[in-house]
Write a structure and sequence with these properties.
The structure holds two protein chains of two kinds.
Chain A (H helix, E strand, L loop, with lengths): L9 E3 L23 E3 L32 H8 L2 H8 L2 H8 L4 H6 L26 H9 L5 H7 L4 H23 L13 H33 L1
Antiparallel strand pairs in A: 1-2
Helix pairs in contact in A: 2-3, 5-6, 5-8, 7-8
Chain B lengths: L2 H24 L7 H16 L27
Helix pairs in contact in B: 1-2
């Protein structure tokens, strides 16, 4: 299992985490049953057949950020045999992974590149052309004068405590927006009477705010990390 | 930034907030009002994050979610 550095956005697809799932979620290999992995290294869901794994940022964790290379094997060992076989894709794949073969090569096999494992850092949000925010690209984009560059210029004027507070505040707002998306009727009582255009528009606005706040957090995190150097 | 330009920035922000409130209330509960709602949401979350007093930008006591209701009695 790999852990993230303090404050680093971390993906978490483990069972029992605060994920939205219509069925029992499988913990993702490379993450392990205990949870976290640095976001940039996390596999992009869907990872396995019937996968409903989701990624959730974890701001509350600390770690050394160094991958633990036997995490995947240990993860498969910890699963019930039938479950492990399903997640691996076949009994043969499972046997090879447990024999310490490179799990990524086993999973990818001879698959078309389109169907090979991707990392979160590699992917784009489908349909929007917008890169999924990562520590690197959100902060670097801001530094290059792109999105959030205005905010970044102001961060110099703020102390560490204020920056940490801003991150917590943004995270709390993200949680509120998530709650609204999961239960819009709690905000819009006559939700079912609203047009599809309105419903879709409002859900997109809430999601856009989540994305924006996530990017802001990543920019602040990037700034803090660089200021520490 | 000087205190004067800080005050100027707050005035700019308060004016934009005023415009968005008017627009949001005029189109409350309608698709056309969603952008004003989103913009005000963003301003409020930024103000919360950076300790900008809501009263100074015209958002104190303003119920943003009221902009999503078709019948707005008194959002402000």
């Amino acid at each position: 299992m790999a852990s993230g550095a303090r404050g680093m956005p971390i993906a978490n697809g483990s069972a029992g985490s605060a994920t939205t799932s219509l069925r029992k979620p499988h913990p993702m290999p490379h993450i392990g049953p205990k949870g976290p992995t640095p976001k940039a290294q996390a596999p992009k869901p869907p990872f396995h057949p019937f996968c409903r794994c989701v990624l959730t940022p974890r701001w509350d964790l600390e770690g050394d950020g160094k991958p633990k290379h036997d995490a995947e094997r240990r993860f498969f060992e910890a699963l019930p045999a039938g479950e492990a076989r399903k997640v691996a894709g076949s009994a043969d794949r499972l046997r090879r992974i447990l024999a310490d073969e490179d799990w990524e090569k086993v999973v990818n096999g001879n698959a078309d590149p389109l169907y090979r494992l991707q990392r979160v850092r590699d992917v784009y949000r489908v349909g929007t052309g917008v890169t999924l925010p990562t520590v690197t690209n959100a902060y670097e984009t801001a530094k290059r004068g792109g999105k959030h560059s205005g905010m970044l210029r102001q961060l110099d004027r703020l102390g560490s405590r204020q920056l940490e507070k801003a991150i917590r505040s943004h995270q709390a707002t993200i949680d509120i927006h998530r709650q609204k998306i999961s239960n819009p009727r709690s905000i819009v009582e006559d939700w079912d009477a609203r047009s599809a255009e309105y419903q879709s528009g409002l859900l997109k606005k809430w999601q856009a705010e989540i994305d924006n706040l996530t990017e802001q957090i990543l920019v602040i995190e990037g700034y803090i990390n660089e200021r520490r150097k | 930034m000087s205190a004067e330009s800080n005050a100027g920035a707050m005035i700019c922000l308060a004016e934009v907030v005023e415009l968005l409130k008017e627009e949001g209330l005029a189109h409350a509960g309608k698709y056309e009002g969603l952008l004003a709602y989103q913009a005000l949401s963003r301003i409020k979350s930024s103000a919360d994050a950076y300790d900008v007093p809501l009263a100074e930008i015209g958002l104190d006591g303003f119920d943003l979610d009221a902009l999503l209701r078709t019948q707005v009695k008194s959002a402000a």
